[in-house]
Amino acid sequence: MILSMIPALSQASSSAVILQYHHVSDKTPRITSVTPETFKKHMNYLAENKFNVIPLVDAVEALRSKQALPEKTVTITFDDAYLSIYTNAFPVLKEYGFPFTIFVTPTPVDKNYQKFLSWEQLREMAQGGATLANHTMSHDHSVERLSGETEEQWLSRFRQDLEVTETRIQEKTGQSVKMFAWTFGETTPELRAALDDMGYVGFGQQSGAAGEYSDFTRLPRFPMAGIYGVNDFGIKVKSRALPVTTQSPDSSLISQDNLKPELELTLAKGDYQKKQLKCYASGQGELKITWLDEEMTHLKTQANKPLPVGRTRYNCTAPSNSGRHYYWYSHAWLRLTDEGKALD
After folding, report:
1. How do 310-319 and 326-335 pair as beta strands?
2. Strand duo 240-241 + 326-335: pairing
3. Where is each NodB homology domain found (predicted)?
4. What residues form DSSP beta bridges with 104?
5. What pTM was computed for the model?
6. What is d(CA 108, CA 209) in angstroms, rounded to the nearest whole number?
7. d(CA 267, CA 292)
8. Please, which residues have CB within 8 angstroms of residue 324's CB and are 6 or more apart in sequence?
9. Is 326 in contact with 291 (CB distance < 8 Å)?
10. Residue by residue, what is the 3-state secondary structure of 228-268?
11. Distances in Å between the alpha carbon of 287 and those of 154, 207, 217, 254, 290?
12. pLDDT tens digits for range 151-170
């Protein structure tokens, strides 16, 4: 039971930070990689600063049940089942005794692709503290529809892929935790509704801590790759969830007639400095914030210039009243090509 796995609370929090890694290598694309040296520094930071590193399933259960977590609670995840997780990350994780989750794409594992893990290695890591979860069979763009495909057919294809992937992981490892990471962090309200209907928890690639108000079909994770997490790792792992109770629009998709989308947020009370809240857009810097009420609980913000094809994020942050933490919220936007395709 989760109650026995979480230590007595000296300082309680309603947030958990979920870290997302792909490659742990200096020979893979920088945009999806951290070097082994950086990964070692990250884990050493967590250990030396006495972070509470727990399994992802336990963090999710605590958040959903509104059970207080210890301050500085972190969970570690990897996407895609790359070989470098086994060769470069697993020895470090074993050294520190940290549990972790791998979101597995079975097709390259089944086909013995060179840079991917084997089922034997995945089972070995499962015995050493890894949770194995769902990341689609072949890492396709779930948001894309096939030519002539109806919405019902599209959602049926997504559901079938989810079931086939979960069955394959269970057949090969014995695990079935019904947790799912969106490929490329891309999703839509229709896909999320299907995921929720099937009893899964979903995870995105938008930054921020997860909290009691988070959407459990697209929980935030901090991407750790390239420039991200190298110089500001300590700030991110100490962050807390900005208490966003409602968001509009609900979708990430933007259309040609709305290339500077407006985001509206409603905030609950919390230990953050409202007057210091700032929002930023990828590649655009700081955005203007307009408060829509005197109590400063409802705001809107908008891009300064049209968003490009691909993925963009609005990040909103505010310091805590003590100045020791940042409260963080991120929304991912997705602009498809004119042909309705998503970029890799």
Report:
1. antiparallel
2. parallel
3. 72-344
4. 134
5. 0.94
6. 31
7. 12
8. 238
9. no
10. CCCCCHHHHHCCEECCEEEEECCCCECCCCCCCCEEEEEEC
11. 35, 17, 27, 18, 10
12. 999 999 999 999 999 999 99
Could you tell me the fold of the domain covering 246-335? Answer: Immunoglobulin-like (2.60.40)
Domain ranges of the chain: 2-239, 246-335
pLDDT (tens digit, 9 = 90+) per residue, 210-269?
Answer: 999 999 999 999 999 876 666 789 999 999 999 999 999 999 999 999 999 999 999 999
For the residues of 15-59, what is the DSSP string, one character each?
Answer: EEEEEEE-EE-SSS-GGGEE-HHHHHHHHHHHHHTT-EE--HHHH
Residue 23 tokens read as 């490659």
Is residue 70 reached through a cis peptide bond, with omega within 30 degrees of 0 on the bond before it? no
Burial code of 140-168, b = ≥16 C-beta within 10 A, e = fewer? bbbbeeeeeeeeeebbeebeebbeebbeb
317-329 confidence digits (pLDDT tens): 999 999 999 999 9
- The crossing angle, in degrees rounded to 10, of helices 119-127 and 151-173 is 70
216: how many CB neighbours lie within 10 A of its CB?
Answer: 16
Q: Residue 96 is inside which H or E element, if any?
A: helix 90-96
Distance separating alpha carbons of residues 187 and 107, to the nearest angstrom: 21
- Would you give the end-to-end CA distance of the chain in angstroms? 39
